[in-house]
Amino acid sequence: MDFVLVHGTTQSPAGWDRVAKLLTAAGHRAIAVDLLTPRDLPVEGYAQHARDQYDGERPVVVAHSGSGVLLPAIAEALDARALVWVAAYIPDFAGGRSLRDEASAVLEPDWIGVDPTADPAKASEFLFHDCDPETERPALDSLRLFNPAVLAAHPAGAAPEVPSTVIVPTRDRTLRPDWLRRAGRERLGVTPIEIDAGHCPHLSRPAELAAILTGRA
């Protein structure tokens, strides 16, 4: 099985390294795409950018955090067999609101306006608070800002037709776990899977996350 791993707004693809190694060891192929480009693109442009980095067929596409805005378009461009939302924003398919419209309901209030790439202490407090010391260093090294305007402003399109899995980190300090639980049920019609982790379980709980991914695949 192929897994295409999509980084969020504050990390490079290196944030997926631990999960990718575990997926590979289990006999799968893992491709962490890089969404960073010299200029901002429309949603379809980022989907094609991901398509250009993948040479397989019908992968499971896994998105983290703000890249949930792009997940439906990337999944369509790659003809995905399934989608996985890891602490990821689920668009308002029925109402058409953007992440910017919903920010106060989606995000923890203390996180709004924080740039963790400019302050390692803030990164540790909000993103990596559940990482052990051995993990925190590479976690901090993975920090990188990717925040094109389209992520906040893009209105939701149609809901994806392929199966979805929603993973809710119960100790998330950036995206509200209660909101994500409700959005998974109401917007995708699925019962979320909970994991005892902060916002980045691919770093703090890679084995548990990889087991969920392989089990769902």
UniProtKB/TrEMBL annotation:
The keyword Membrane does not apply. Residues 3-211 form the AB hydrolase-1 domain. Pfam families: Abhydrolase_6. Keywords: Hydrolase. The keyword Hydrolase applies. One of its GO terms (molecular function) is hydrolase activity. This is Alpha/beta hydrolase.
